[in-house]
Write a structure and sequence with these properties.
The protein has 127 residues and is α+β, with helices and mostly antiparallel strands. The protein contains three helices and six strands, in the order βααβββββα. The chain has a single domain, classed as Alpha-D-Glucose-1,6-Bisphosphate, Chain A, domain 4 (2-Layer Sandwich).
Length: 127
């Protein structure tokens, strides 16, 4: 198992970025839908119509979202953590994804940018 660590600088307030991570209406707009999501610990979420699913395991509003993630035919969940901070009037998101199946690391790492964080960034920066 491997891990991925990335940083994304988003030119939007932290509350808008948080909304893009946890509000199903926003998630559907940036392309992760149909989705089922909120910011309650223990909530079982679904993204991309259930292709990715899991559970919120730790939530600190507008600061931290840690989730168990399943995709494909994984035997066990991987853990995804979004740490949000404000710096120079922008929001910085530190993404840490641990326990990524070895054979999927390259695709998942690219997918974080192409299908998740960059579409989210584009949405919240223009609204």
């Amino acid at each position: 198992m491997k891990f991925i660590k990335k940083f994304y600088e988003i030119n939007a307030p932290i509350d808008k970025v948080w909304d893009g991570l946890i509000n199903p209406d926003s998630i559907n707009k940036w392309g992760g839908g149909p989705s089922r999501m909120n910011d309650e610990e223990g909530f079982e979420f679904k993204l991309w119509g259930g292709d990715v699913f899991g559970k919120n395991i730790k939530v600190i509003k507008e600061k931290l979202l840690t989730q168990e993630w399943f995709g494909g035919d994984w035997d066990k969940p991987s853990i995804v953590t979004f740490n949000l901070k404000t710096a120079n009037g922008k929001t910085v998101v530190e993404l840490i994804h641990t326990d990524v199946p070895d054979k999927e690391v390259k695709d998942i790492e690219q997918g974080w940018g192409d299908y998740y964080m960059l579409p989210l960034k584009k949405l919240v920066e223009q609204t």
